[in-house]
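Hi V.,

Quick status before I head out on leave. The structure for the redesign project is tokenized and pasted below; the design run finished overnight.
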């Protein structure tokens, strides 16, 4: 596929071109999630904005109050319009519709409400600031047309950072009914918006392929995987404070899931495995995080004596917490493994611990991890039980050097420098849209 050869379009490495400063550039970043959210898209968008500002850019963000993944506004913020300056970034926040159980139509109404509330804010921001670049983040694509219109008026270049193929995910996860008419409308809207961006950044190869299928030219796609700060997350040896705090014995084998607790994560299979392994006193399961299905899972599995549910742990203690695991669990529902490459993967790899993954062959996760992880077919509880037991008994190999090598491919500094180079290359590009 000539035009779909996106893999050749990745930004050059340090040996090809040194990082260019962003001094004097004005950048508007427009997305539904932003710092101080510590999980998912908001974490990465916050780090991008901070890095651009540190590189000399005048950065303005239009976003929501921090609310993910618990789908409630964090303490210290209000679900209303506000302005602030955070880490040398100008931040405008606008309200959105929220409820604790964000299921079905509510998963559509939340981004739509942000698109409506933020439209006049981002339009005015772009018109008055006249930025060189408008950097949109998906989710949510619903908000993009207003930003594209304003960018066209002032002659700004537009970039889209695709963190989630939200239209595909909405149907795959059952948030929306599988009406063919609704799918056609969603796909038509998506195609119309995608083709109007000057450049598209995505986090996985399979997502890039899907974007090409949706009519986005491969010449306008760059792959930049979500990253991990290797100075913050790394292997720890010796006693672990969390194992002591959680009354875990030295011989206990800890299976840890830490992250968003939602439909795409498929945690039912992990907890069903825990239920079957309840008689094995040595294997313990820890589920840490927040999300729309957490309460349902606690109600269903909270009585298991080998399972502990915890909230997100503080950022400054995250390395210690992730290192309390013997095995990291990366669960995905069938059909979700190629819609997004989980952001938690980098931190798992950075600890050097073993990882068990539910993903089918041919998916992005399967191809990226290779034999650095143990794979179980999605939905197969018995296979997961057998894999965890085999890992606990030492009957499956551990390849720490391969895990370490993959972690270094996701280093934070390299990824953010790549985005700076891409920002400058996009401004240097001449001519009309491809």
């Amino acid at each position: 596929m000539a035009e779909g050869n996106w893999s050749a379009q990745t930004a050059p490495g340090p040996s090809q071109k040194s990082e260019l400063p962003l001094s004097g550039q004005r950048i508007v970043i427009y997305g539904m999630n932003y710092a101080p959210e510590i999980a998912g898209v908001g974490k990465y968008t916050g780090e991008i904005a901070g890095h651009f500002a540190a590189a000399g850019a005048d950065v303005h963000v239009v976003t929501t109050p921090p609310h993910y993944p618990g789908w409630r506004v964090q303490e210290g913020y209000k679900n209303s319009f506000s302005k602030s300056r955070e880490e040398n970034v100008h931040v405008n926040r606008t309200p959105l519709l929220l409820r604790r159980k964000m299921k079905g139509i509510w998963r559509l109404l939340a981004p739509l409400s942000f698109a409506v509330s933020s439209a006049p804010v981002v339009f005015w921001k772009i018109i008055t600031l006249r930025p060189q670049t408008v950097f949109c983040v998906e989710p949510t694509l619903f908000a993009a047309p207003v930003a594209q219109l304003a960018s066209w008026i002032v002659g700004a270049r537009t970039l889209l950072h695709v963190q989630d193929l939200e239209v595909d995910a909405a149907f795959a996860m059952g948030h929306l009914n599988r009406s063919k008419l609704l799918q056609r409308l969603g796909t038509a809207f998506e195609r119309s918006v995608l083709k109007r961006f000057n450049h598209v950044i995505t986090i996985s190869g399979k997502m890039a392929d899907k974007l090409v299928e949706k009519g986005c030219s491969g010449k306008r796609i760059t792959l930049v995987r979500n990253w991990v700060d290797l100075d913050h997350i790394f292997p720890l040896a010796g006693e672990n404070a969390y194992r002591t705090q959680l009354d875990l014995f030295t011989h206990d084998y800890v299976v840890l899931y830490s992250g968003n607790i939602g439909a795409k994560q498929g945690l039912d299979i992990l907890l069903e495995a825990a239920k079957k392994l309840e008689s094995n006193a040595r294997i313990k399961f820890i589920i840490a995080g927040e999300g729309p299905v957490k309460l349902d899972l606690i109600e269903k599995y909270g009585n298991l004596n080998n399972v502990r549910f915890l909230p997100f742990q503080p950022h400054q203690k995250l390395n210690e917490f992730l290192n309390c695991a013997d095995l990291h669990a990366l669960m995905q529902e069938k059909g979700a493994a190629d819609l997004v490459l989980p952001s938690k993967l980098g931190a798992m790899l950075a600890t050097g611990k073993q990882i068990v993954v539910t993903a089918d062959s041919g998916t992005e996760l399967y191809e990226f991890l290779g034999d650095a992880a143990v794979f179980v077919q999605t939905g197969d509880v018995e296979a997961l039980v057998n894999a965890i037991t085999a890992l606990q008994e030492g009957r499956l190999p551990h390849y720490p050097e391969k895990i370490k090598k993959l972690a270094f491919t996701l280093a934070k500094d390299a990824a953010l420098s790549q985005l700076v180079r891409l920002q400058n290359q996009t401004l240097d590009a001449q001519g009309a849209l491809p």
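Above is the designed sequence. The longest strand covers residues 58-63.

G. will cover questions while I'm gone.

Best,
W.
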